Amino acid sequence: MRESSALPSLRLAPQQLHQACDPAQFAFATTAELEPMDELIGQLRAFEAVRFGAGIRHEGFNIFALGPPGVGKRSMVSQMLSRQARSEPAAADWCYVNNFDHPHKPQAMRLPSGRGTDLQQQLAQRVAYLRSAIPALFEGEDYRAKAEAIGQAFTTRQESAFKELGEAAGQQHIVLLRTPSGFAFAPTRDDEVMAPDEYEKLPEDEKQRIAGAIAELQKQLEKILHHIPQWMKERGEQLKQLNRETTGAVVTQVVDELRSRFHDLPQTSRYLDQLQHDMIENADDFRHEDETANLSGLTVVNRKTFHRYQVNVLVSNGEHAGAPIVSEDNPTYGNLIGRLEHIAQLGALVTDFTLIKPGALHRANGGYLLLDVRKVLMQPFAWDALKRALQTREIRIESLGQMVSLVSTVSLEPEPMPLDVKIVLFGDRLFYYLLQQYDPDFAELFKVAADFEDRIERSPETHQLYARLMATLCAKEQLLPLDRLAVARVIEHSARLVGDAQRLSTHMRSVADLLQEADFWAREAGLAAITENNVQQAIDAQIHRQDRLRAQLHEAILRETLLIDTQGAVVGQINGLSVLQLGDFAFAQPTRITATTRLGTGEMVNIEREV
User: What is the DSSP secondary-structure string of 533-582?
Assistant: First the structure.
């Protein structure tokens, strides 16, 4: 085949391989003269998406910030949400209180910001006061006199009944005796109990009369004994009513103070009504200190007595203005939706509403929750729990052991809390597209995609913005400023990182790492600003730390372990370059490419399918 003289030249000029950045375009001496930037450059598309997702309040418009790690997704989103959150109302406080009708189903209570802690403290003070005030009332003379009067009335009633029975028996010459085993009737003669031998000497008709009389008196005695438990119950009810009246006055006064303090919260008022009724009904709890028991040398305290009057403040937002912004770095199932803790007591694990602990969804309720999608997907049941909370718009705390039927012990069923939160997921594009394809719920829950650019167009305007970006990073990391030559060298290196002379990298982590290393070399040299030599020294040091394998391959070529001919020509052989990527380091390796020819089978070969 004859060569064509019209083939274009493939030779590249040096300026095509490297586009230098002219430092003369910069009017500053060092970046210390530049004003820092508040936003990332080249991320207008992502900025608008985040602003839209944060502003819209309809269901399902949560945000997925997608892009490679290190481009500044989290910092940019956090800054935008901080500005947005400051203009929003403060989130409510959320508490769990005892359900006096169904203790295994604690009640969720929503209070304005800061009022939850106030209720907790005020109620704790009132309970402490009642623990000392109520016992003093029961020890007073007035209560003792009334209690003794009730007891005396019962004793008088009982003695009167036995006296009437004794008188009725005496008229028939029979006496009512009280023995250690109970009551007994015996015949008398001359007001003395008749001896058994004397009774045997009586005529038969007298014996029958006495037996009949005793039988009748026995029936009357049984009626009296049958009424005694009822009389004791009435006495107990009277004492309990006295206790209610004695306790009711002080409890009502204390609860009325709380009720007036929280009069604008109907749910709190209903809870205080239930609390007041329970305190009055269980006044005896205030008359005795917590019961203790010593088992095998361990002192166990009965926590039930006053524990039920506590307020478990799950989330308090009184100290923060605006909507909360929560970032959960360990999004396990329990850290997302909360958990029920247990304590060991008498060899068993017990729990109550005060051991309910909040999750990230509780803390972010009314605000924003930032999550790394990879970490969420790696935790068992975390992704499903997050989706279930967003779909039902409520936070339901469930024991993971009960959910998977690993345990069958009785536990709490806390009332679900309404959920109003904006979720922001951070992750690579791969996670976004995989979830879009294989999770049918994902598109309904995360409708806003904020796609971050990993490169921007290179121009004189972006050069100036890039210089301001370096000034921002230096101020944030407390680094020395860069002079103009150093700025130009960083821009050139950024273009090399992105592999395009017409583009610059937006990978902020790589730029920040380079500036930090250059700052180290500049400080070591005692300079007041980072120079071009410091930047180049940092670049060379980064390459040197990672090029062990490249050096070994180069040595193998020089020692002719790997044969690469650079002179002459061989039929069916050419030299090429293979680019090897090892982590963040890439280098080219000379490679011999050979071609083998053979007699074919007579079939056509499609070169688009076979090489």
Answer: HHHHHHHHHHHHHH-HHHHHHHHHHHTTSS----SS--TTEEEEEEEEEE
At 132-152, the pLDDT tens digits run 888 887 777 887 787 777 777
- Grouping H, G, I as helix, E, B as strand and the rest as coil, residue 232 is helix
How far apart CA 558 and CA 367 sit, in angstroms, is 63
Other beta carbons within 10 Å of 543: 12
CA distance 242 to 146: 8
Do 580 and 487 share a domain, yes or no?
no
Both structure tokens of 161: 């009944």
* Residue 12 DSSP symbol: P
Q: Do residues 463 and 520 share a domain?
A: yes
Q: Residues 473, 519: contact at Cβ < 8 Å?
A: no
37-51: buried (b, 16+ CB within 10 Å) or exposed (e) per residue? eeebbbbeebbebbe
Query: What totals of helices (H) and strands (E) does the chain contain, helices first?
Result: 22, 23
Say what the alpha-carbon torsion angle 80, 83, 89, 94 is, to the nearest 10 degrees. 60
- Residues 6 or more apart in contact with residue 177 via CB below 8 angstroms: 183, 184, 185, 186, 193
Helix, strand, coil percent values for the chain (each to nearest 5) = 50, 20, 35
| Nearest-angstrom CA–CA distance, 611 and 590 | 20
| Selection from 217-226, 257-266, 300-309, 392-401 with the highest mean pLDDT | 257-266
Domain range for 586 = 559-594
Query: Do 419 and 498 sit in the same domain of this protein?
Result: no
Decide if 472 is inside a domain.
Answer: yes
Q: Is 344 helix (H, G, I), strand (E, B) or coil?
A: strand
CB-CB neighbours of 589 under 10 Å: 16
Q: In what order do the strands lie in the sheet with 174-179?
A: 174-179, 182-189, 192-193
Q: In whole angstroms, give the CA distance from residue 380 to residue 376.
A: 8
Q: What percent of the chain has pLDDT over 70?
A: 88
Number of domains present in the structure of the chain: 3
Q: How far, in Å, CA of 418 to CA of 480, rounded?
A: 50
pTM value is 0.78
Q: In whole angstroms, how far apart are CA 69 and each of 65, 447, 541?
A: 11, 21, 23
pLDDT in tens, 70-104: 888 999 999 999 999 988 888 999 999 999 999 88
Give the CATH number of the domain where residue 472 resides: 1.10.8.60
Coil, helix or strand at residue 9: coil
User: Residue 16's beta-bridge partner residues?
Assistant: none
DSSP assignment string, 353-415: GGGEE--HHHHHTTSEEEEEHHHHHHSTTHHHHHHHHHHHTEE----HHHHTTS-------PP
Span of 12-21, 47-56, 368-377 with lowest mean pLDDT: 12-21
Please state the separation of Cα 2 from the chain's center in Å. 76
Q: Judge whether 56 lies within some domain.
A: yes
